[in-house]
């Protein structure tokens, strides 16, 4: 009976499609939720790094260095198995995973946002102030919209990385694509087929997002070329 | 067990430090082998992408895209459980881990090498040939020093990425630092202390290498401004 089996047999993959796609959906949800957390935290930390108060600046610096330096795998294990046990909080795996992924990405995004904000010409801020806008109004209406255009490509790359990183969340039991794949591969004893298919789904997600960013980037740069403000000076 | 009965006990770290460090040396070893493979794969793909043969450049391009898009974690399982079982290639955990790291790192290195090779203008080669140097001398004395200046800092960054990636190899049973931490905490029930120390060691390691890359970048950048 063994010899009658075909070398590549994807029938068990097709029949498990529902579970795999559900896992894929959860992976995308985790990546998206984590990026939203990372954008919020990253923006706060970026603004803190640009603060004139030394203590705030130092805290923000340590924050970015710490989360950029620690591997996701180590951090997620620390949060889920270490911290949870030591402090006695029972965090659901999905929450632990999303929070960890969000924290890690916020360290990278804080740096991205900071470079985006500092890329804006000081003259723009001064012009805004000269017009009588408050510091906050200048940040909100002049600096951030322009910085946004600069940070779109690196933000997109970060999202792609987050999608790939969700696979690691399987380690704490988040039932995302990789977790489901591992279990199904063991159950059907078809590791090659299942892992190949999982790889294909990640590839599809990553290529789709990258293509989307490329299109968005093109649109934004076309828009900026038409803006007279940038051609002046 | 509703109340939190966990008592933090740092003594366990003193006791198991040699084991943790032994695990760390395995992480360093596997990331080094992975990096060596990444350099080879990367150079092959970079040269392929710059090939004038359209078929070769397309294949190389697709290979880079593919290797960059698949998560290392998936690649690791694919190599260790999928590939080796399907084709009867007996890989040890260490070999499978290093291979997966090499494939992922290779895709990133391909981009780095391509950037380095493109950064040296053709005029430099032509000028070298015009003043009577032979092809080997031009490559060694003119192209390579300039390409290395562009390539070295991002290469160090790719290595940092691989080092962080290498922490996941314990999932297929490589006895690295995290594996040791997991194993010991089964015995002592002190996961918090062990993972905290393991995490701190990794942060120190990656930050010092990144800092080195930053200094290198500034130094190499400055020497370019002078020369």
TrEMBL record, chain A:
Gene Ontology cellular component annotations, sorted alphabetically: ATP-binding cassette (ABC) transporter complex
CDD domains referenced in this protein's UniProt entry, alphabetically: TM_PBP2
Major location category of this protein: membrane
Keyword Endoplasmic reticulum: no
Keyword Cell membrane: yes
Annotated compartments: Cell membrane
PROSITE patterns in UniProt: ABC_TM1
Topology in the lipid bilayer: Multi-pass membrane protein
Alphabetic keyword roster: Amino-acid transport, Cell membrane, Membrane, Transmembrane, Transmembrane helix, Transport
Residue stretches spanning the membrane: 24-50, 71-104, 194-216
MF terms (GO), sorted A to Z: transmembrane transporter activity
ABC transmembrane type-1 domain: residues covered: 24-213
Entry's Gene Ontology BP terms: amino acid transport
Family: Belongs to the binding-protein-dependent transport system permease family. HisMQ subfamily.
NCBIfam families linked: HEQRo_perm_3TM
Entry protein name: Unannotated protein
Organism: freshwater metagenome
TrEMBL record, chain B:
Keyword Cell membrane: yes
Subcellular location per the Swiss-Prot or TrEMBL entry: Cell membrane
Record's bilayer topology term: Multi-pass membrane protein
Domain ABC transmembrane type-1: 24-213
Molecular function GO terms recorded: transmembrane transporter activity
Transmembrane regions: 26-47, 59-81, 87-108, 158-182, 194-216
One Pfam family in the UniProt entry: BPD_transp_1
Iron listed as a keyword: no
GO cellular component: ATP-binding cassette (ABC) transporter complex
InterPro entries: AA_ABC_transptr_permease_3TM (IPR010065), ArtM/GltK/GlnP/TcyL/YhdX-like (IPR043429), MetI-like (IPR000515), MetI-like_sf (IPR035906)
Name of the protein: Unannotated protein
Main location: membrane
Entry keywords, A to Z: Amino-acid transport, Cell membrane, Membrane, Transmembrane, Transmembrane helix, Transport
Organism of origin: freshwater metagenome
CDD domains xref list: TM_PBP2 (cd06261)
GO biological process: amino acid transport
